């Protein structure tokens, strides 16, 4: 009788631990970025430039991009509005309008179902007179 209780207890512990482990890591969307910082170097004033940030969903659930926000109006992000299937990729395009001369560093924050904390993508460079 004691052995049956021991076996049942161990089965219960392993079942709970296994569900907790799978639920927290591998049974969700996981986003992997190919690049997250881009330096344009020197660019001419008045000529918009863009960068494409590529990513992949390495998880087991669809990746949903909830929100993408730029740090200013001079940077406009474009992103997929449909879920990204597991083991598939996607991209976020950020266009920077180079109106002002000088050094710049802008950011694009990406909120997904893969993490509670947004991923911050950086674009930087220097605008020179055209």
Could you characterize what this model shows?
The chain has 130 residues and is an alpha+beta fold. It has one domain: Immunoglobulin-like. 18% of the residues lie in helices and 48% in strands. It contains one helix and eight strands, in the order αββββββββ. The protein has one helix at residues 2-24; strands at residues 31-33, 37-44, 49-57, 65-70, 75-78, 89-96, 102-112, 115-128. It has a four-stranded antiparallel sheet with strand order 1-3-6-5, with no helix packed on it. The chain starts with a helix and ends with a strand. The model is unreliable at 13-25 (pLDDT under 50).
Largest beta sheet: strand ordering: 1-3-6-5
What CATH architecture label applies?
A: Sandwich
N-to-C terminal Cα separation, in Å?
86 Å
Low-confidence stretches: 13-25
Radius of gyration: 22 Å
CATH topology: Immunoglobulin-like
Overall spatial form = elongated
- Work out the strand percent: over 45%
Helices and strands, in order, run as HEEEEEEEE
* Class from helix and strand fractions: alpha+beta
Task: Provide the CATH superfamily.
Answer: Immunoglobulins
**How would you state the average pLDDT, rounded?**
87
Q: What are the main properties of this structure?
A:
single chain, 130 residues, alpha+beta, Immunoglobulin-like, four-stranded antiparallel β-sheet, four-stranded mixed β-sheet, 1 helix, 8 strands, 48% strand, elongated
């Amino acid at each position: 009788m004691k052995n049956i209780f021991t076996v049942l207890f161990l089965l219960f512990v392993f079942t709970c631990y296994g569900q907790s482990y799978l639920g927290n890591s591998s049974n969700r969307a996981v986003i992997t970025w190919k690049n997250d910082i881009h330096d344009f170097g020197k660019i001419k004033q008045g000529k918009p430039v863009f960068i494409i940030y590529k990513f992949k969903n390495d998880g087991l659930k669809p990746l949903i991009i909830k929100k993408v926000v730029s740090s200013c109006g001079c940077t406009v992000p474009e992103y997929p509005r449909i879920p990204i299937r597991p083991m598939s990729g996607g991209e976020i395009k950020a266009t920077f309008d180079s109106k002002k001369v000088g050094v710049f560093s802008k950011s694009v924050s990406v909120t997904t179902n893969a993490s509670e904390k947004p991923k911050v993508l950086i674009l930087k460079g220097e605008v020179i007179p055209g």
